[in-house]
Write a sequence for this structure.
């Protein structure tokens, strides 16, 4: 049952400076950061559970100040306080060699200020019970069965979805398969236990630990194809599931998608979000890559519309730069976050011309059919290309 998405899922992105209200330690290498949203910005930060925000700040990188952007999923259900203000909560897990995540875990404190982008993302339920910003459409009677598979920090958007759907509809059942290395690595351990206590008959929690022995062999070790098939046979009633939520590293998400496809689960029932593309050796976009242009070589003409203003930039054919990289050379405010084809922030509609899009982990099939592309991954293949960021 597909429904019209809440307006917040398609809003024009923009950064706003927010103050950190609290930094809470979740595990040894993960924190939860709460941003205070003042009343005058509350409407800009309405969101649907499962969406994410991009954070932006200046950090010292190799001795030079550099703008760093990272996207993080919102980990709490929407709430508004009596004074009209609200909040945004994200979880930041330290990645090995991660510039932003390491800095945040070691130095971010309450009172600090960061630029936070308006919430975005399509990792949301197609069922209206999670359209919290559209209360009249919330389904409170239909029986639904949801399953989520998450690994590590992939729990971040999933816990927001779980909290919301379980609270919104007493007829909902949700199974969560959550993979981690060890118990000490489990993010939101107490919160998940509280959900289990609050909804004992409707929320089933399956912790899978790869480096700790559990009573059940099914819950010990890595989730591989055999183990997943067994779970979908003995633990989950696959044929009764209305919607699937998959969030984690590329390998696990792809394994789940392939296995569900083998069992005949329609693709439209599966929602997924990646934290990495699984190709760490491949450059993530070309953000800020310098391009030499002297006007003497063959070039592509890239036209774009952004905030109602038209821009044009010439891109040498030999440079093979992305549309996003070219646009940023003349408009620094062109929207982007991950630049790896995962988040969808740089999405634009291809109005004319042709492009090659290297990767796409963000756009839905209907968006592709309508001509949308990820500009961080798209390179011109015609002499002139026009894209519309406002479409």
């Amino acid at each position: 049952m597909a429904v019209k998405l809440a307006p917040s899922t398609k809003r024009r992105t923009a950064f706003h400076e927010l103050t950190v209200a609290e930094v809470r330690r979740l595990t040894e290498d993960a924190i939860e950061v709460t941003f205070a949203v003042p009343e005058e910005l509350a409407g800009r930060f309405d969101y649907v559970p499962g969406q994410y925000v991009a954070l932006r700040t200046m950090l010292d990188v190799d001795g030079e100040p550099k703008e760093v952007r990272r996207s993080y999923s919102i980990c709490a259900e929407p709430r508004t306080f009596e004074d009209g203000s609200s909040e945004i909560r994200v979880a930041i897990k330290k990645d090995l060699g991660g510039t932003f995540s390491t800095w945040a875990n070691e130095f971010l404190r309450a009172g600090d200020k960061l630029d936070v982008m308006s919430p975005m993302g399509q990792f949301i339920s197609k069922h209206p019970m999670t359209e919290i910003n559209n209360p009249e459409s919330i389904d409170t009677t239909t029986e639904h069965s949801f399953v989520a598979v998450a690994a590590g920090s992939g729990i971040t958007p999933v816990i927001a979805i779980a909290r919301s759907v379980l609270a919104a509809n007493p007829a909902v059942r949700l199974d969560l398969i959550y993979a981690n290395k060890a118990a000490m690595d489990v993010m939101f351990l107490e919160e998940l236990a509280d959900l289990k206590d609050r909804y004992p008959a409707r929320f089933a929690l399956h912790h899978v630990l790869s480096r700790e022995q559990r009573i059940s062999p099914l819950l010990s070790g890595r989730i591989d194809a055999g183990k997943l098939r067994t779970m979908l046979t003995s633990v989950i009633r696959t044929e009764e599931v209305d919607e699937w939520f998959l969030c984690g590293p590329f390998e696990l998400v792809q394994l789940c998608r392939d296995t569900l496809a083998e069992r005949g689960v329609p693709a439209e029932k599966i929602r997924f979000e990646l934290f990495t593309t699984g190709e760490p050796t491949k450059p993530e976009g070309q953000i800020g890559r310098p391009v030499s242009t002297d006007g003497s070589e063959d070039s592509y003409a890239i036209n774009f519309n952004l905030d109602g203003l038209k821009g044009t930039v010439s891109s040498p054919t030999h440079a093979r730069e992305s549309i996003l990289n070219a646009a940023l050379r003349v408009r620094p405010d062109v929207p982007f976050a991950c630049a790896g084809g995962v988040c969808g922030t740089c999405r634009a509609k291809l109005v004319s011309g042709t492009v090659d899009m290297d990767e796409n982990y963000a756009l839905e099939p209907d968006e592709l059919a309508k001509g949308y592309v990820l500009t961080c991954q798209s390179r011109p293949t015609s002499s002139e290309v026009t894209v519309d960021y406002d479409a």
